[in-house]
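Lab manual, section 2.4: Encoding a predicted structure.

Procedure: take the sequence of the chain (264 residues), apply the prediction step described in section 2.3, and record the output as structure tokens. A sample record is shown.
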Amino acid sequence: MITMEMMGKVRRMKLRDQLSNSEIAKRTGLSRNTVKKWLKAPGDEAPKYRRVAGKTKLSEFEGTLVQALKADLHRPKHARRTARALFAQLQAQGYRGGYSRLTDFIRDWREQEGKTATKAFVPMSFEFGEAFQFDWSEEGLLIGGVYHHMQVSHLKLCASRAFWLVAYPSQGHEMLFDAHTRSFAALGGVAHRGIYDNMKTAVDKVKKGKGRVINARFNAMCSHYLFDPDFCNVASGWEKGVTARWRKYWPWCRRPDSMLCWWR
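Recorded output:
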């Protein structure tokens, strides 16, 4: 592997010590052509050798493999073929190359086609009043010997970590709007931005990238409270990393004198 130290050494031998290319090659073990090339290259970046892509055993099967990969993009994830399955399929068609060659091609193709999901993370440091995060959880409560399922709303300010929890029988629009109203009143204001997952009461359709068709009623609530909704990437719940989780605060919430949550 070429290092800037070796390249600097060659340049010092030539420009400072006034050695010939042959003498530099003799002392460093490099070829004279390499020494000559390095001396002509810019001194602030090391040259990179690129292997010319040649024909491999996989070359004649690349069209079939690409067609299979494109077809799998339209299938559910559980129905898509694994690299091992594609390897067996190509072997049945006469492929005699290695498995690693196949997996390297699949990885490169997905990167070039942009099919590999790029994970974008919501920053976990916020200014005061910048954003809040909202989520639901399903919990159980034993009242008078009867077990009840509850849907608990979690609204938490990202900067101060102040939060408010409210328990409901379901996650419908009525409960969603009431949860925001009670939480904003309890926390004493509304942040500029709200971070959500792609819950059905907020998003009618998820489009490519950050595109969303926002539910009309949910959008009306955002307009009323003057905050911008920001939705996480699909299957990226970690982007709401500071959202309060009900179970963490359960010992305090079940106390009669608790001010952490409101029972509706």
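Check your result against the sample. The first helix runs from residue 4 to 16.
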